[in-house]
Design goal:
This is Glycosyltransferase family 9 protein. The protein contains ten helices and eleven strands. The protein is α/β, with parallel strands linked by helices. The longest helix is centred in the first third of the chain and has 17 residues.
Length: 317
């Protein structure tokens, strides 16, 4: 049995799609899997059960990348082709079964939308796969000891980033005396190119209490997140990765639709700015360009602290 899984270049979208692949793995035990992904998302699939190959898809002019992908895949017979990109390539491959992502429905959460691909009508909750190698590395990076607060203070667009000074104040309040995680360690997560913009966060706690996870591969990050007690971050791929890892996850939203992309799971929650998504993005001065000032200024520290406390204590007696 062979499965071809064509997924997103973006980490968040790729994580959200993983429940569909997990459903196929459960339906076809022992299947060999080829994953097609782009950019940073490729490292997300290093521990997929039955992994045969990861094909890194780099965008080229005139859609040449899709032609090259077809050239790599057309000689094989695929028992299942799952296409999260609606690429068209999947229609020109020999396949027993094709699952094509449905057209977008902006009223639905992405996970509910993806459930329409599956005939058994289950909701394909996001998953992330790790293995003993990555789990061992996570044990070294996040050793057993005091609790760990993980934060994702960056995002792929400056408009979605809660101000870094608020993250600093948040860490101080949650890990200080009277906080929900007194004396906790701090795990900092971001992409390598985002390190400079979050440098001030590294000095919020003594050095021995700071765990630097910036730039780690995604499977190791997921394994580390499983060892954390709470994750708080902007709407980003790391937020979805934390939720898929089973960590209590609080997502911070402003100029993105929380009803469509909130972190998915029983131990997840989100808060947003007082202004709604449509109110914000329909404003005549709203700007999607890079380098714009954060649209998250109106999300108060008190709101995030309260939400974090409620999430952390959820289910506790």
């Amino acid at each position: 049995m062979r499965i071809l899984f064509i997924t997103s270049n973006r980490i968040g979208d790729a994580v959200l799609s993983n429940g569909v692949l997990q459903s196929m793995l459960e339906q076809y035990p022992g299947a060999r899997v080829t994953v097609v992904a782009g950019g940073a998302a490729t490292s997300l699939y290093e521990a997929v059960p039955g992994l045969e190959e990861i094909i890194s898809l780099k965008k080229q002019k005139h859609h040449i990348h899709w032609l090259k992908l077809w050239g790599k895949c057309f000689r094989r017979y695929w028992d299942v082709v799952v296409d999260m990109r609606r690429s068209g390539v999947s229609y020109f491959l020999l396949a027993g079964r094709r699952l094509i992502v449905p057209a977008k429905d902006e009223k639905l959460h992405r996970i509910v939308e993806l459930s329409r691909m599956l005939e058994n009508e289950t909701t394909p909750s996001p998953v992330v796969w790790t293995d003993p190698l990555h789990d061992g590395r996570a044990f070294e990076l996040v050793p057993t000891g005091s609790p760990v607060l993980a934060v994702g203070p960056a995002a792929n667009w400056s408009g979605k980033q809660w101000p870094i000074d608020r993250f600093i104040a948040l860490v101080e309040q949650l890990t200080g005396d009277g906080g929900i995680l007194p004396g906790a360690r701090l795990a900092i997560l971001a992409a390598p190119q985002e390190r400079e913009q979050i440098l001030s966060l590294y000095s919020v706690l003594p050095q021995e209490r700071v765990i630097d996870l910036v730039g780690q591969d995604l499977v190791t990050v997921a394994a580390c997140l499983r060892r954390c007690d709470l994750f708080i971050g902007n709407d980003s791929g790391l937020m979805h990765l934390a939720a898929a890892a089973g960590t209590r996850t609080l997502g911070l939203f402003g100029p993105s639709p929380e009803w469509r992309y909130h972190p998915w799971g029983a131990d997840c929650a989100c808060v947003r700015t007082p202004e709604g998504y449509k109110e914000m993005t329909n404003h005549p001065e709203f700007d999607y360009s890079h380098g714009v000032t954060s649209y998250m200024e109106s999300l108060t520290l008190e709101t995030v602290v309260t939400a974090a406390e409620e999430l952390y204590r959820r289910g506790m007696k």
